[in-house]
UniProtKB/TrEMBL annotation:
Its EC number is 3.1.11.2. It comes from Jannaschia rubra. Gene3D superfamilies: Endonuclease/exonuclease/phosphatase (3.60.10.10). This is Exodeoxyribonuclease III. Its cofactor is Mn(2+); Mg(2+). One of its GO terms (biological process) is DNA repair. The record marks 251 as: Interaction with DNA substrate. Residues 4-251 form the Endonuclease/exonuclease/phosphatase domain. The record marks 152 as: Transition state stabilizer.
DNA sequence: ATGTCTAGAGCATCTAGA
C-alpha cells in the first residue's frame, strides 16, 4: 500500500498538477492539506476520474484537508478532538483496509504558529497537545495508525538548510521541537528519518527569495507511525522533483510504502 | 532576507495567511 501526503496549496490552483500526479504516480491513498476550498467546491472529477473516492474537510478561503483513496475509507471523522470552539479545518481520520490489515490514517495540517510568541503560537502548542492526546488514545486502543501531513515542525537541525534562521520561528522554536518529541516519544516512528539519517532532505521551499534554486529548504511534512505500522514499513521517500515542475506547490509529496 | 503565491471580496486592487 502506497500512501502519499501532499500540501497542495490550493486544490483549484493545483488542479492539473494533482490530476497528473494521481494518474502517473497513482498512490493508493493521497492525504492532502491546504485544499483552500469548501467541501462543495472541491473539484471532485479530478480524483474521481482517476478512480479515487474523496473525503474532504474544508472551509472557506484557507486550511482544509482531504483523504483520497482507491479503496473504501471507513469510519471517517472530521476535526481534532479536544476543543469544541476550534472551527479550523485541519484534521481528518479514516480507516483503509489493505490485503494484510487495516490502518487508521490521520491527515493533519498543523497550525503554522507565526508570529511567535503570540496567540497564533499558543494555538499551535495547544493543537499539538490535543494531537498528543489523540495519539495516546489510539495507542491505548492498539489501533494500527499513522499521522501524516504538514506538521509545520522542523524536527532538528538536519531538517533545514539554514537551521539558525528558524531558531526563533514557530516552526523551529525549542518549545515546538519539544512538543514534537513528546509525540514521537510515545512510541511513534518518524518514517523518513528512520530510513534516512542524513541531513539535507526537505519537503518545503518558500516561493520567496529563490529558495528552490538555492535549495534553501525545510523538512516539515511527515509520517508518524504506530509500532505495528512501523513494522510494516517498506520505504519512505520525498518526491523532490515535483518542486521543479510548472506551477508547483511550495511543498512536495512524501511517500510511505507499507507491506499492508 | 526575501525579488511569492492563493483565495476572497468584488470589479481594481486590496487583505489575510503562509
Amino acid at each position: 500500500m502506497k500512501i502519499a501526503t501532499f500540501n497542495v496549496n490550493g486544490i483549484k490552483a493545483r488542479y492539473l498538477t494533482v490530476a497528473d500526479w494521481l494518474r502517473e504516480d497513482a498512490p493508493d491513498v493521497a492525504v492532502l492539506q491546504e485544499i483552500k476550498s469548501v467541501d462543495e467546491a472541491f473539484p471532485r472529477d479530478l480524483a474521481e476520474d482517476a478512480g479515487y473516492e474523496i473525503h474532504t474537510h474544508g472551509q472557506k478561503g484557507f486550511n482544509g484537508v482531504a483523504i483520497l483513496s482507491k479503496t473504501a475509507v471507513e469510519d471517517v471523522t472530521r476535526g481534532l478532538p479536544g476543543d469544541d470552539e476550534d472551527e479550523q479545518a485541519r484534521y481528518i481520520e479514516g480507516t483503509v483496509i489493505g490485503d494484510r490489515g487495516a490502518v487508521r490514517i490521520c491527515g493533519l495540517y498543523l497550525p503554522n504558529g507565526n508570529p511567535a510568541p503570540g496567540p497564533k503560537y499558543d494555538y499551535k502548542l495547544a493543537w499539538m497537545a490535543r494531537l498528543e492526546v489523540r495519539a495516546r488514545q489510539l495507542l491505548a486502543e492498539e489501533v494500527p495508525f499513522l499521522m501524516t501531513g504538514d506538521f509545520n515542525v522542523i524536527p532538528d537541525d538536519r531538517d533545514a538548510t539554514r537551521p539558525k534562521a528558524w531558531e526563533d520561528d514557530a516552526l523551529g522554536l525549542p518549545q515546538t521541537r519539544a512538543a514534537w518529541r513528546r509525540l514521537v516519544n510515545l512510541g511513534l516512528t518518524d518514517a523518513f528519518r528512520a530510513r534516512t539519517p542524513a541531513a539535507g532532505h526537505y519537503s518545503f521551499w518558500d516561493y520567496q527569495g529563490n529558495a528552490w534554486d538555492r535549495n534553501d529548504g525545510i523538512r516539515i511534512d511527515h509520517f508518524l507511525l504506530s509500532p505495528a505500522v512501523a513494522d510494516a514499513m517498506r520505504d519512505c521517500t520525498i518526491q523532490t522533483e515535483m518542486r521543479g515542475r510548472e506551477k508547483p506547490s511550495d511543498h512536495v509529496p512524501v511517500w510511505l510504502d507499507l507491506d499492508l
